[in-house]
Amino acid sequence: MRPLTPLFVTVTPNPSLDRTVELGHLHRGGVHRATAVRVDPGGKGVNVARALAAAGHRAVALLPTGMAPGERLAALLEPTDVTTVTVPIAGATRVNITLAEPDGVTTKINEPGPVLSPDEAEALAARARALCAEAGWLVGCGSLPGGVADDFLARLVRRCRRPGLRIAIDTSGAPLQHAVAAAPDLVKPNHAELAELVGRPLGSLGDVLVAARELRARGIGAVLVSLGAGGALLVDRSGEYHARTPPITVRSTVGAGDSTLAGFLAAGGEGPDALRHAVAHGAAACRLPGSAAPGPSDIRIDDVELAPTPDVTLALTGDAA
Question: Which sequence positions are flagged as catalytic?
Fold first, then answer.
């Protein structure tokens, strides 16, 4: 009998319904006819859980849900292999809109989301701690809704930390600043988020490498930076690595960074082989419509080029996933 894979618990404080509208070309102020429309369950942690489940791993997605959009979000997750745990809230789950053009350019309109009461925020945190009792990874992801303090994910790190549990955080802005201070095992900023975190532009891979080293020096176990078309950079106890794929035809970048994180976790959450899987998963997500989660048949590991010694002179465009 094959041993069970580690249990992954994702926490998404501000989930969404992701509505993707495909257009021939976006004209500001014009009238458009959609060529295709799809609705996916969304939110960074939800996307991570979906990608992990598609890769054959046990994934629990914890999320607050409210009103009709929340009911539909839960219904869309029901036929997947993700175990969904919901915390009822009074407000309505947000609906995000993506306008996707054939050349891969995506325009996103993200709603702010509901306002959670102190009791609802506490119920979410308490449920996360309970679910982590048997988990191998806790993954806290995405933006925070109104009513939730910027240090919510940082407090979650401290509250849930225990021997045998590793914690990954993927967020931005003030919540990321607070989370870094809590020293999780892994953070996954994108290029722009890392630049904001360290307070300076990062124009080259060398600049990103220095910034990632700074985070490691602050107690972070591993730093995985997604770089859009530039692939991803990893700095952890095993070394420093850069990986990317040759240019691909992009259909949608929505959820690509989440698939990158899922690929890294699915492959062990450490070292160069996990980085290769991360980049392969991110590229696979870019080739799919909307925020579809890539499955095993979509992953092209052999396309990934790994550099054990990153080329610090490589210029970066600022694209992020």
Answer: 258
